[in-house]
Design a protein that fits this description.
With 375 residues, the protein is of the alpha+beta class. The protein is built from twelve helices and five strands.
């Protein structure tokens, strides 16, 4: 369980979970970005209304409206889809495409409405572009390169244009934006790494808790539920069957002459026999059945939604499967089985298990290696 292969599989599993967590946070954090970027463009056009050609403004807003509608449609499809379809493989590329389209339109539009001879308006446009960059850090922080790409598409067109202008003030403004962008890039890297570390630690803690819980509920030798876990799960199953008025059967199994096996061949062989019993029981029953080791060589199984006739057939098949097991020097293994069905007047699990246990002891008294149904 703790070998290199297992640890590698766990790492791959946690990495996949972290990637899914990043995608989930991306979609939940960035819904407002669609409306924010569109609103920012409307406000910028309003502030520059008297300085810029209105046809350029309307063209920009029109293209931005189309890209925003595409993103809204993507969000609606994502949130309506079932959880098992919200995978990074399906959604990351779609998100990249819609975001790059929207950011590219925003950056190109900001450049298009940049007045050539109005420093105040130029500063206003750059202020909005920088504001868009800050919002990108908060909205797309779980994806570092997505954040940087969107910032670049928004800032670089106007910044590049300013760098080649004759005014020292314009060039200085461009350099100031580039310095700001470098700090943003550094902060984005640190924030993205911190988020990934937080996601990873959360998943590792969940995995460790799952492993420890499973270990606390599992019989180490057979891999079945231990006595405490069996009765906890069995009580829930009984309540569910009573609520839905479904039949429920109990099977009690005790290996024949197990003390003789231990005394003759040693406890290591006895343990091997018990391991094989765990395998046989696991393969003979359904996932919905509850199987557990009660202690020593005694096992119990609950069969929900199963009639007594079907339970008897299953128990007889189990006897045949056990008789075919060979473990080292032990050439013949057998078990006695008792089967009982839940009666309508039974209100507790103990009475059902007691009836199966009494049937088990009658199977022992009748010569072992057989199934007896509770009277």
């Amino acid at each position: 369980m703790g070998g290199p292969g297992f640890r590698h599989d766990q790492e791959l599993f946690i990495a996949a979970q972290v990637r899914s967590d990043r995608l989930r946070q991306l979609f939940h954090q960035s819904v407002s970005a669609v409306f924010g970027s569109f609103l920012a463009a409307i406000m910028l056009c309003g502030l520059c209304w008297e300085r810029v050609d209105h046809r350029i403004m309307f063209g920009w807003i029109g293209l931005l409206s189309i890209s925003s509608l595409l993103r809204i449609l993507m969000f609606a499809t994502y949130f309506r889809s079932p959880d098992n379809e919200r995978t990074p493989q399906r959604w990351e590329r779609t998100y990249w495409v819609t975001l790059m389209l929207s950011a590219g339109i925003w950056g190109a539009g900001a450049l298009a409405i940049m007045p050539a001879n109005d420093l105040l308006a130029q500063a206003l446009v750059m202020l909005f572009a920088v504001g868009m960059s800050v919002s990108a850090v908060s909205c797309y922080s779980s994806y570092r390169y997505m954040t940087l790409a969107s910032i670049g598409l928004v800032l670089l067109p106007c910044t590049t244009w300013l760098l080649f202008q004759p005014s020292a003030l314009q060039v200085g403004m461009a350099f100031a934006v580039l310095v700001f962008a470098s700090f943003v890039a550094s902060a984005t890297r640190k924030l993205s790494e911190a988020l990934e570390t937080a996601f990873r630690l959360t998943r590792e803690m969940e995995q460790a808790h799952h492993i420890s819980t499973h270990a606390a509920q599992t019989d180490e030798l057979t891999g079945l539920k231990n006595r405490r876990a069996f009765f906890e799960r069995a009580q829930l199953l009984l309540n569910d069957c009573q609520k839905k008025r479904l039949p429920l059967c109990a099977v009690m199994l005790d290996m024949d002459h197990f003390k003789h096996i231990n005394d003759t061949y040693g406890h290591q062989v006895g343990d091997q026999v018990l391991r094989q019993m765990g395998v046989v029981i696991s393969t003979c029953f359904r996932d919905t059945d509850v199987c557990g080791r009660m202690g020593g060589e005694e096992f119990a199984i609950l069969l929900p939604d199963t009639s007594i006739e079907v339970a008897l057939e299953i128990a007889e098949q189990l006897i045949r499967s056990i008789s075919g097991v060979m473990s080292g020097p032990v050439h013949r293994i057998s078990a006695s089985v008792g089967v009982a069905a839940m009666e309508m007047h039974d209100n507790d699990l103990q009475s059902l298990m007691n009836n199966a246990d009494k049937a088990l002891y009658r199977a022992k008294a009748r010569g072992r290696n057989q199934v007896v149904v509770s009277e």
